[in-house]
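fold-stage: in
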Amino acid sequence: MKELDPVILLAVFQEMLGPLLWMLLAVVVLGLAAFVALLAREKGLMSRRLVRSEALGVVGGALALVLMAKVSSSGFTDAGGPADWFLIALVFGAGLAGSTILVYTIAGWWTARTARAH
């Protein structure tokens, strides 16, 4: 594979994840839209909420690694070269960042909802 083709990557992920791929993509798109709307509404980041979200993001990174191990045919003991370890770090980082954004967004909208109710 000499070049990175997005259609081939999509086919590989579809084969590995099945219908879960489309659910994960929907969560990503809707989560990012809600995050951007929250940032526009609050006009910035709230540091206390961000720190708490980052702490829970570590759990999300670990869950991303568990999902990777479930859908692939190899485990962590099969990682042999730097490319394998880079991919493992990349999956953890994506899970961490995605979870942090989702937790921050959910907490922000939840706070706004409860403040409006009182």
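fold-stage: in (second)
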Amino acid sequence: MPTYVAPDGIELVYHLVGEGEPVVCVPGGMLGSAYLGELGGLSQHRQLVMVDLRGTGESGGGNWRCDQLVGDLEALREHLEVERVTLLGHSAGASLVTLYAAAYPERVEKLVLATPGTRSLGIEVTAERRRAVLETRKGEDWYPQVSAAFEAIQTGEGSDWAALSPMAYARWDAEAQAQQELEDGLANYEALGVFNSPEAFDPAATRAALSTVEAPALVVAGALDWGTDTVAAEEFAEAFPNAQYVVLPGVAHHPWLDDAEAFVTTVLRFVRG
């Protein structure tokens, strides 16, 4: 189990999967990196450096605020002894990757931002837009329950966020349900609340810093993703001077599960560039 030392002396864990040129993979939701699996087979083409952020997976430590974790990624780059690093951030992990690129633009080779969280840039998704994505799935067996739970949350009469889980997947089948069970077991919800603290983000400053980033970026959106819908994902991509924006049809928040072939093909085409 390889480890490295963060700037404050905390020992952090990462996992190596596959062989080839390294891609540092930053998980979202303050989840241990195990939920990423092998990213749909991307490990057959690149070595995946799976990061257990502090307080997740096999890494300990507190101080979970997103902006405070930027130094951890830089310490990992130094530990890996690479001049520049290719980073892949999923969901909330994209916020951390974005802050890293803003702080260390000269250390970035390429950026892959998969169904990215957008708090770092102050981009919000309205309830109306989430509802519009939900309406595209009216034919699903689970739609009545999910729709009712969503509307109850909007009015403040309910708080059953777990009931919304099917919307994170293109198919709410046994594989997706097993994935959700895995993620529920890995999640550090206390850390996630701190990670997303409003004080962690300065969108105006981050946008200004990103305007100088020369490294190419790829933003992968899912047409069925209501966490970061295509409107938000496109605005996110526009913050990078040298960005490609790709929408994968039939994909929700887990592109490597929903359409592994399309996800891997898209990412490989970009990183091989």
